[in-house]
Amino acid sequence: MKQPLLDMRNIVKSFSGVRALNGVSITLGDGEVLSLCGENGSGKSTLMKVLSGVWPYGSYDGEIYFQGQQVKASGIRDTEALGIVIIHQELALVKELSVMENIFLGNELGSCVSLNDEMMHSRTRELLAQVKLNISPDTLIRELGVGQQQLVEIAKALNKNVKLLILDEPTSSLTNNEIDILLGIVQELKGQGIACVYISHKLDEVLALSNWVAVIRDGNHIATKAAAELTQNDIISMMVGRQLDELFPRENHQIGETILQVTHAKASQPGASRCQVEDVSFSLRKGEILGVAGLIGSGRTELMQCLYGCYDGDYQATIELSGQTLQIRSQRAALKAGIAMVPEDRKRHGIVPIMGVGRNITLSILDRYTAWFGAIDEEQESHDIHDAIARLKVKTATSELAIKNLSGGNQQKAIIARFLLTKPKILILDEPTRGIDVGAKYEIYKLMFALVKEGVSIIMVSSELPEVIGISDRVLVMHEGRLKGEFDHQGLTQEKIMNCAIKEAESA
């Protein structure tokens, strides 16, 4: 039997007495792709941190063998020297440096007296060609989109003579075209004998790309199976430990009269060649889930930011809520009127990372616990926190735990809990399930239907077309700042949405 490239045996890792990994074993051969699947908090990232040397030898139990030799890494530099390279979901590029400088950062060619810029420039061009990126080596990272930055990270890995590439949620922020390019490059790397561990919640990608699928649940290795033998439902069942009746649990609910009317919404940035939102008008009914679809740059998020008073450019719109005309120029004004918004980027705009889970949840209603003489009603705040954690099923050891230590799905549920405490009439959810696992998605969908049954109206912006169709009652489609179409969910297909989203581009 051929010796595997990677052999991780009975890995055990604990934090403060709590086991994050409980005897996990995986193997991988040259040129193979193993997808690592599991819910947020299942232990996937911890296992990869062990493999890549973030958690050094001695901080975990078990053994790791790479190319037949035991790995006893004291840090990432040791594993990179072996050819094990990890690309994290949060990219680690220095945005003020050039592509070439990032690729060779810490591995410069030349001497301490004089760097060989010509050789590094030539090598960078070769690497960029390999990852199908047609840009100058001198381009600054901050001038590149997320998809291009992801490819630069892969070029950087190739420069380290990578034998095993670890990709953690590489497509969570990419467009469909960028995803196709990235998956094509991984296929090419397979052909060159480079192995890959691929972490993703997008199961269609997992099945298209992988030789093997390994599932971890609650720190335990459930199974490793050939991808060709699995369906998406098989993987979901292993991940969550139960059958999900449907991926999108649509529930019947009553839709009432129009509660929100937005007319002539417009948003622009000084000096921009076109408006990000151009004369958009739409309505929302009580107890309705209104989906908003469109390609990146269509103006979806900017339109929602106008409604919530947080757009950072110039904007205007006539907003009528329950027949009353509103002037919303701040988030505080929106919340007071009954409009709340869960932002697209939870790490930048949603959470205060070092603050406890509980205080993140009550952040928007702190004045509710403050008496006229300045005292804080800590008992009532604690009661609300624990009720919210229970209702949203936020998995946390304690409400005082810093929210940065929670999984992405539990961070998202905590943010939703915060805005539900404001008792909104309208809840805007911008990419509510981005980067979270199937089980957490299912819980958020169930919550959405529970809310609309209570009379809350929901606007959901999503790049996931199956999600838009599966959850929405009605769908708006935007393209280059304009509203291009409106559809009822009955009989709606992804093709109809995409045709509407790109029709202007095709006719140009």
UniProtKB/TrEMBL annotation:
Keywords: ATP-binding, Cell inner membrane, Cell membrane, Membrane, Nucleotide-binding, Repeat, Sugar transport, Translocase, Transport. GO terms for cellular component: plasma membrane. Pfam families: ABC_tran (PF00005). Its main location: membrane. The keyword Cell membrane applies. It comes from the Bacteria. It is found in: Cell inner membrane; Cell membrane. It is a peripheral membrane protein. GO terms for molecular function: ABC-type D-xylose transporter activity; ATP binding; ATP hydrolysis activity. CDD domains: ABC_Carb_Monos_I, ABC_Carb_Monos_II. Gene3D superfamilies: P-loop containing nucleotide triphosphate hydrolases (3.40.50.300). Residues 6-243, 260-505 form the ABC transporter domain. The keyword ATP-binding applies. This is Xylose ABC transporter ATP-binding protein. It comes from Marinomonas pollencensis.
